Amino acid sequence: MLKEKIVIDRSDGRPIHQQIADGVEKLARDGELGAGERLPSIRRLAVLLGVNRNTVAQAYSELERRGSVETRVGSGTYVGGADAAQARERAGGALSAGRARNRPRAGNRGGVEHSLSRRTRSGPDALARLSVTDNVPRIELGGLVPDSDHFPLEDFRVVMNETMAEMGPGILDYGSREGYPPLRAWLANRLREQGASIHEDEIFMLGGSQQGLDLVSKLLFDRGDRIMVESPTYHNAIGVFQLYETELVPVAMDEYGMRPDLLDDELTRRSAKLIYLMPNFQNPTGITMPLARRREVLEVAVRHGIPLLEDHFDADLRYAGEPVASFKALKGHENVLYLGTFSKMLFPGLRLGWLAVPEAFRDPFRKIRTYTDLAPSRLAQVAIHRFCERGLLDEHLERVLAINSGRLQAMLRAMERHFPPDVRWTKPDGGMSLWIELPAQMNAVDLLIEARRAGVNFAPGELFHLDGSGTNSFRLSFTKETEDRIERGIRTIGELIAARMAADAGSRRAESSNILL
Amino acid sequence: MLKEKIVIDRSDGRPIHQQIADGVEKLARDGELGAGERLPSIRRLAVLLGVNRNTVAQAYSELERRGSVETRVGSGTYVGGADAAQARERAGGALSAGRARNRPRAGNRGGVEHSLSRRTRSGPDALARLSVTDNVPRIELGGLVPDSDHFPLEDFRVVMNETMAEMGPGILDYGSREGYPPLRAWLANRLREQGASIHEDEIFMLGGSQQGLDLVSKLLFDRGDRIMVESPTYHNAIGVFQLYETELVPVAMDEYGMRPDLLDDELTRRSAKLIYLMPNFQNPTGITMPLARRREVLEVAVRHGIPLLEDHFDADLRYAGEPVASFKALKGHENVLYLGTFSKMLFPGLRLGWLAVPEAFRDPFRKIRTYTDLAPSRLAQVAIHRFCERGLLDEHLERVLAINSGRLQAMLRAMERHFPPDVRWTKPDGGMSLWIELPAQMNAVDLLIEARRAGVNFAPGELFHLDGSGTNSFRLSFTKETEDRIERGIRTIGELIAARMAADAGSRRAESSNILL
């Protein structure tokens, strides 16, 4: 229906996405699209209308801003926002979906029309779709979070008390913008023991590793710059890079990670400002890049003169196999920015990460770091330093590695047992997540809706793709739940997949018998 | 000399600033400028060459990047960096200042030429000049910092322990991106008691108020946008706004703060994206804007449709007079973003501030806030909330108000006693700083060099100006040092001013007698 009713006229003067948005609103006003009706997926409408997916995404964003549609978590886009639907009920049906666009939005208060920055209008907010919660207790295989039941709170409390007693009130003062020197030295030393060529002067302490992505963006990106990313990649990296109005270029992965031949091809065609990679237990796939591949990728980066950001968010969470050398241990390491965090290997509550910044970038980075939020918490840094120096981090890691390893094995066993044969998954050596591929025609968001109803959460693959692809994939996190609950969660998901497969097969049979008649 | 030797040719093709930079380097190579020689101030060279001050600032930045000059803290720009000078010593003088530009800089490592974002190349880094330290113990009247000797560490330690015991390990987990709800509610309630129209849903907890400036920049600014700021204004606000490649428009102040007539004139000529103001105890001047003036300024803002960012960094530090209503208590408050912090009224070490975001900006702000660094520390927020709810913040404020008030009075008394009659200063009702104006011909940076040698630090006025003006002004902070040390510091500064005045008068006499002869 939409294909015939939404007329795109390239000589119209209005941008295409606006024509689509106006078209949808007109159909809603005319009653051809009912309130609460689900719009086609971005991918599908793009195919129907013969336009780019980004254009449809822009149209849907525009409609959401106007209040004419509502995007529901991992579910889709619906005509008429919740507000509109409620208002319509109150008004006895007098308010049409199309009029819902009159809800308050930027600029219409106090007679002032505010103008936001362009970046606030960039792309759909994948995170908002993921993070809406409905407070239903469920088996959490979605978020990439450690299990707080095992946080070493008592050890940390003792260390925190000692820190305050020893340092006195000055511990609550501003620290330096680079961070607490003994902690920077401790980290540099640990990384050097792992073979990385990192000096403590290179290390800047951050308020978590997400801040590192923001600061590197500030350091390197101008509007329109290109960034090479793994496909799929971390959804919040997509989010922050897009805030800088950059163009993200997805580079396909194979079982060893990003393909250097494709990277080389892309960089030969057009330049880029950064290559962003998670070489260990990649988020979302769990894939670890082997040493030979790392060498190839870095060689391509250096040859094209593009810096590489190595995100080691969960580098220490290895449960099997031998550690692979960091890019910082390889020829060309001067070209690598190295990002780390305490959030995954210890706990996220202190908001502490770090970035190793090669000398070439140091001075401009220092300025950017200061103006962004001055410095990270001194108390948090001094306490964590003491915690690490005491060997408490390593003790904690030992416990967590055993727990996580058991959970990963439990998940793999459960998938073998409960997932139908056509489903494929990765088998990571570490980290927090693995990656599932369903048969091509099966939609993971549809599956997620059913799974949530049945009390299990996971992260749909679309979130980690730039182009609306990955609809038949999803990410499972195995660090938050116990082995028992993982087994139950996987069984539930497996049953739902099997049921959908049976239904699909049924409808195919029905269809083919239809043709035969 | 420089005037004749640096030839500016507008038909040359090279940008003017590059011609100036090349000219300076040529003079250094030819030995006409000796290594270590001080270059004229930006203002002075601009006058000499008949160019804009920004052009000279760009030239000096360019020279610094090339390694040909060195900018020293609050002192000036010198031919040949420290590295170059040392290298020259080692090389027995064989290395000329001009060749010092071969020192490592962005891009020349590993054969890779890196390209930074435009914003990293913006303007001189005022902060770097201010914050370089030489570890000489001195009377600190420079930085705007509370006195850590009076931080309520023991109360905080107790509260922190209770928080951890009560909340369990989950306290170390991620919090929500908006912040800890009870703390947001507590803050909203406190602000409402002060008359502000702020709902808890509007409040986002931040990692300090500097982060608020960064987030508001992301929310509102595109390259080339204009921002109206008080002149003088907070140097780190200048820094972060310039990172977004904006144009800052200084609006002159009188004794009541920013002049609404000038603001109106500016906004009538060309639009802007934001008006940035510190209405209470402004940094650096200490001026508080009276209610009538607030109404006038907000009326202008609303009439032109420009949002106003009200920075209340030290709003609770009032030692005299009655509180003045916040912009959030006035007609047009929907147009106001309100920024606060615990750093000045309590302590800065936890990095906690907040921003009240009116509904019109809420959704885009939420996205930006998440992608920037996910969320502030949960532990810090829960502990501070408990601290505040127990009344410990108010107890602490009572102590600090008495101490700071005594220190402000001590500083005012000392200035009356030790400053020559031609020196003028503000008399704030609160906050942390006051503002000194020397006779017009006297340079505060020159004075600062002498003051530091004599063991006293302050903040030169140029830092707080956009155009290199304010050279005869400086900021004194009265919150960090005891009354005794304030008296000694002011006496030292007073003696130095008097000595310079005598020397100036002497040279004027010498000069006039010269004419008479």
Question: Would you kindly provide a brief summary of this structure?
Answer:
The structure is a homodimer of 517-residue chains. Chain A is of the alpha/beta class and 517 residues long.
In words, what does this structure look like?
Two copies of one chain form a homodimer. Chain A has an eight-stranded mixed sheet with strand order 4-11-10-9-8-5-6-7, sandwiched between helices. A four-stranded antiparallel sheet of chain A has the order 12-13-16-15, with helices on one face. In chain A, strands 1-2 form a two-stranded antiparallel ribbon. Chain A has three domains: 2-105, Winged helix-like DNA-binding domain superfamily/Winged helix DNA-binding domain (Arc Repressor Mutant, subunit A), CATH 1.10.10; 139-149 and 395-516, Aspartate Aminotransferase, domain 1 (Alpha-Beta Complex), CATH 3.90.1150; 153-391, 3-Layer(aba) Sandwich (Aspartate Aminotransferase, domain 2), CATH 3.40.640. Chain A has helices at residues 2-5, 16-29, 42-49, 53-66, 82-90, 126-131, 153-167, 181-193, 209-220, 235-243, 260-269, 291-304, 359-373, 378-389, 392-418, 444-453, 483-516; strands at residues 69-72, 76-79, 139-140, 203-206, 226-231, 247-254, 257-258, 274-277, 308-311, 336-341, 353-356, 424-425, 433-437, 456-457, 459-460, 473-477. With 517 residues, the first copy, chain A, is of the alpha/beta class. Chain A has 17 helices and 16 strands. The longest helix of chain A has 34 residues, at 483-516. Helix content of chain A is 44%, strand content 12%. The interface between A and B is large, with 93 and 93 residues.
